Amino acid sequence: MAVYTAVPAEALAQFLSRYDCGTLVSAKGIAEGVENSNYLVETTGCDGSGHRYILTLYEKRVDPADLPFFIDLLDHLGDKGCLVPRFIADRDGQRLQELCGRPACLIEFLTGVSVTEPTQAQAFAAGKAMAELHLAAQDFTGGRPNTLGVSGWAPLATSCDGALNTIQPGLEGRVMAELAHLEGRWPRDLAQSVIHADLFPDNVLMLGDAVTGLIDFYFSCTDVRAYDLAIMHGAWCFDSDGATYHADRGVALIAGYQSVLPLSGDERAAFPTLCRGAALRFLLTRAYDWINTPPDAMVTRKDPLAYLRRLDFYAGADIDSLVVPA
Amino acid sequence: MAVYTAVPAEALAQFLSRYDCGTLVSAKGIAEGVENSNYLVETTGCDGSGHRYILTLYEKRVDPADLPFFIDLLDHLGDKGCLVPRFIADRDGQRLQELCGRPACLIEFLTGVSVTEPTQAQAFAAGKAMAELHLAAQDFTGGRPNTLGVSGWAPLATSCDGALNTIQPGLEGRVMAELAHLEGRWPRDLAQSVIHADLFPDNVLMLGDAVTGLIDFYFSCTDVRAYDLAIMHGAWCFDSDGATYHADRGVALIAGYQSVLPLSGDERAAFPTLCRGAALRFLLTRAYDWINTPPDAMVTRKDPLAYLRRLDFYAGADIDSLVVPA
User: Fold this and answer.
1) What is the predicted ipTM?
2) Each residue of A271-304: pLDDT tens digit?
3) Which of B1, B25, B298 sits opposite A111 (nearest CB)?
4) Are residues A98 and A186 part of one domain?
5) Which of A86, A108, A130 is the last residue in one of the domains?
6) Which residue of A has its CA nearest to B39?
7) Contact between A279 and A234 (Cβ < 8 Å)
């Protein structure tokens, strides 16, 4: 959520000269996305009408070896009509470049803003957009393992190195019990595809009630489709502290999804378990970051307990109120 | 250089409804300026053609009581033809607002990028733009004391609380000697006006060799005009570490300034002293920030010694090589 690599204007102008995009007009470092450096870049465009792009320099969290997967995925999804940002090719057809010693890509700019308090109509539209994404991904041949999937949670808990109880007394025991619970019940044979895996409101651009873009695919991976919806449910249907569940949003989100891709009986039955897993995943990654970020680091640490509250909610949730049948 | 206050899209849309600017299309937090929160905001515009603005929320470094001064100053300078961003008035004529509990203003967006390695032509254009600013400010009736001017340096050194030598052994003695040197020689009767006081390359937007905007006036104050040029000289004519002086840039910068506003004999004679003062001012503010920012704070601390090197340069500089007569 900061600009880690300062790109001099001179280097940026030279970088842009590889593309058919006209010349540099403006560049602002933007605070967005996972731990990359992002610039909102404006050029004259070939016809002088002005074009905007996102320039991303990949920092530590993204493995450069994964970039061809992300590039191919967004190409595939875009070709199928999903509103995703395309990676722009230079005159030689190259989309993956290097700038200031970092892997770097010029990416399509999409308008829209991220909502903070989704309405029912917005939750419906976002759920529908996820289903369209899953549908479009069905015949995508690429894949990427989910390192933050169910098999990654126990190692993640271990890497917190006994410090979970410093966040809240008893948290470690709670996590271990949840791991054991999920281990025995995690569904292994639900429909899979490439999923977004991080479709928080931050990563959905909207104008009014309409989705204008799905962005930030850097966690995308191959996993259970309904698990993607479970992640989205936790991200869209609670207050940020996790204390209040907004049933209206939850119903609308799932209705939107099912308007395109109805959940199977197995997906529906597994949904509370998938939601518990999703809550545990964000609890654990937030706990890890909490433990490993100094309190005075001037970086906002996201509260892990906001996801413990969601976990508690899902552990006690009535499936019929959670997932209204299609 | 970060976004300190997160503005929800819903609150932003409501804020914008006060203005004749159409509706919200996009908003990106940008890493720019002194310690404020800035967003690059796009709206549909009244005619649907699209408009961009900078939204600034004022954080701790700007005193809200100074905002009317900055607003009036940029109005005055803009009316005189200077390329400065205007503060936008809402339908009731208000330019100073509140958003998310902070004083907030909607400000004109200007194109252009900040150069890192100015060419002679760029240094000339920037020097000329500063002179035009000084000329335009001549009949501006507002004023603001320079809290970081010559009388502020001794208290600033004291507030470093004996820690200057932790930056480099002997630095405190060097600073004290310089304070004593400048105290006796500081020119008191040179031409004054409102000056920018921070016209680093960062704060000059350019397209090619042309200046398209002067921005970030939040240090602007009433002080000696030639001191403003001295600050600019230190900022534009050295490598960032202060080790290398680029005489060609220095000559071009001053020539550009003098193409509009020739330096008087007294200004010329005082210029090396003013440059020493400017170097000491940035040495001291950087030292203060260095001492008071934890090394692990993930905020880039600017090296105070880069300004000690400039100070050393100016202390030994030959006035005739520094300031070529107009």
Assistant:
1) 0.88
2) 999 999 999 999 999 999 999 876 655 556 789 9
3) B25
4) no
5) A108
6) A30
7) yes
